[in-house]
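Technical annex B. To support the medicinal chemistry partners, we prepared a structural model of the target in complex with thymidine-5'-diphosphate, based solely on the information shown next.
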Amino acid sequence: MFITFEGMDGSGKSTQIRLLAEKLTALGREPLTIREPGGTPLSEEIRQVLLAHRKGSVSLTAEVLLFFAARAQLVDEVILPRLEKGDIVIADRFVESSFAYQGYGKGMEMGFLKTLARQVTRNLVPDVTFYLDINLEGSLSRQDSRGTRDRLESMDPETWNRIRDGYHDLIQAHPERWVVINAGDTVGHIHHQIWTELEHRLSV
Ligand code: TYD
């Protein structure tokens, strides 16, 4: 089973992924968790390249291709083999992050992104995608408490809103696969909602 998490920066994905993985592990499943970009030696190196050039000098096309290069390696080397073994794979971001951030947020042509996505994922579609929905104020205050506000400050509120609206468009296109969760809820309640959703899909 392939589970993905999406949401704006500071929406609390990593905490929820950790709790979900712990729960599955306690039940004897051995979930694999991965984060994008990253998850293989090559993909982690590409992540470093993207982080090192965050302040500007990467063109949008180069940025898109780097994200997809990291993802291509991750899909072939890790995700597909693990899914073929029947494992549970939990991904912190997948192609919808590129659609939302590079497409809706930065204006990359959506047709190009979709073509890349089909090729790179080999038509793999997540079984379920949890979207942690957060508003700009919530996101900023979480970033403050993590001391990582820099990244968001370099993104103007219009871009932020375009990305969030983009996510909402993507959800409307495939509502059956997405589970929208209010990220302002308590950590425990969010975890409970996620688990309730998954419980009937998994024979744990
Ligand atoms: P990361 O530190 O993993 O943040 P988070 O915990 O919020 O996921 O950094 C990932 C950043 O990269 C995040 O700002 C979203 C962005 N991103 C894209 O712009 N496009 C993509 O395809 C992916 C996977 C991430």
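Notes passed to the chemistry partners:
The chain has one domain: 2-199.
Residues 24 and 31 are 7 Å apart (CA to CA).
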